[in-house]
Structures are given as C-alpha cells and as structure tokens.
Design a protein that fits this description.
This protein is mainly α and about 200 residues long. The protein has a two-stranded antiparallel ribbon with strand order 1-4. Strands 2-3 form a two-stranded antiparallel ribbon. About 75% of the residues lie in helices and about 5% in strands. The N and C termini lie far apart (about 75 Å).
Length: about 200
C-alpha cells in the first residue's frame, strides 16, 4: 500500500501534471473572461446593429406550433435554430482571436527577454521606423529592408558583446591578484631562473 501512495505522489507531483493543472485553472478563468466579453459586450453591439434582435433567436421554422381552441399547445414548433449555431461560431472566432492575441503578446515579450538575456540588441521602435523609412526612400524591397534590419541588429549585438568583453577585461586587469596568481607567478619566475 505504501508503494501505491508513493507512486501516486510521484505521479501528481510530476512537473507536467502540475503545469497542466495550472493551465486548466488559468484556461477556465480566461474562458470566463472571454465569455463575458462575448456575451456582455460584443453580442449586445451586434444585436443593436441588427435592430435589437438576438442572434441566437434566429431560426428557420419548418412547421409552426399548433394550439387548440383553449390555447393549449398540441404540436410543438419544428425549427432549425441557425442563429444559435451562428452565435457559437462567432463565439469560437472571438475566443480564438483573444487567445491568439494574448499568446502573441506573451511570446513577443518572451522573445525580447530571451534576446536581452543573451545580449542580443534590438532597435527600439523609433530607430526601427527610421531605418525602415530611410531604406524605403532608397527604393529597397521589403525583403531587402528586413535583411538590413536584421544586419543592423546583429551589428548592435556584436558591438554590445565587444563592449562587455572590454569591460570584463578592464575589470580583470584592475582586480587585485589573488594569492594563487601571485604564487603561480613566483613559481614561474623561479623556474625561469633555474633554467638559465
């Protein structure tokens, strides 16, 4: 029985299980936000644009409901509720767009962070727009402009790495020698004298 619980504990504490659980919780919360966006903001705007009609009420009646003389329903209406289907498709597209937008923002931020940590330099927005404007004025194609931007960023990265190496060399030269370095220098000097 102990082995069963030990295996169960190992299973539920595995990294991918925990990540999946966090993803489900965040996905559920994000789904509620997007559902509210669709139902409380976008759909009322669409309803107002269509004259106050609710899209989910749109239908194609195959056979009308029938009532007797007393007003009691004798035969239910048969209809294709294509408006509800249309609303589900619209909800899906809006949710997909929201998720795509959020993921794109996160991936862009992650890529910038990784580039910054790796020492990769990028042009800021002002420099980027100015360089593209200058190259466009020179009659460059879109591919040539993109290649020039990449080359400029690589040039900036190389310059930043060279600056980092220069500062590291200066710091190393300015740092006091350790006792191990001094002993190694003394040993080398003694060996050089003995060889003469």
């Amino acid at each position: 029985m102990k082995k069963f619980f030990a295996d169960f504990k190992a299973f539920i504490t595995r990294g991918n299980i925990v990540d999946m659980a966090v993803g489900v919780v965040i996905g559920t919360a994000f789904g509620a936000i997007v559902t509210s966006l669709v139902n409380d903001i976008i759909m009322p705007l669409i309803s107002a644009a269509t004259g106050g009609l609710d899209i989910s009420d749109w239908k194609w009646v195959i056979s009308e409901a029938q009532y007797d003389a007393a007003g009691v329903l004798t035969k239910a209406e048969s209809a294709l509720h294509w408006g509800n289907f249309l609303q589900c498709i619209l909800n899906f597209l809006i949710i997909a767009l929201c998720i795509f937008t959020v993921l794109r923002i996160f991936m862009s931020a992650k890529n910038r962070l990784e580039k910054a940590q790796a020492g990769y330099k990028t042009l800021n927005k002002k420099e980027y727009k100015e360089l593209r404007r200058q190259l466009k004025a020179q009659g460059k194609t879109k591919a040539e402009i993109n290649a020039a931007v990449i080359a400029k960023e690589e040039e900036l990265t190389a310059a930043a790495k060279a600056e980092q190496e220069r500062k590291a060399a200066e710091a190393k030269a300015a740092a006091p020698a350790t006792s191990e370095q001094l002993l190694a220098e003394i040993r080398d000097l003694i060996k050089a004298r003995e060889e003469k």
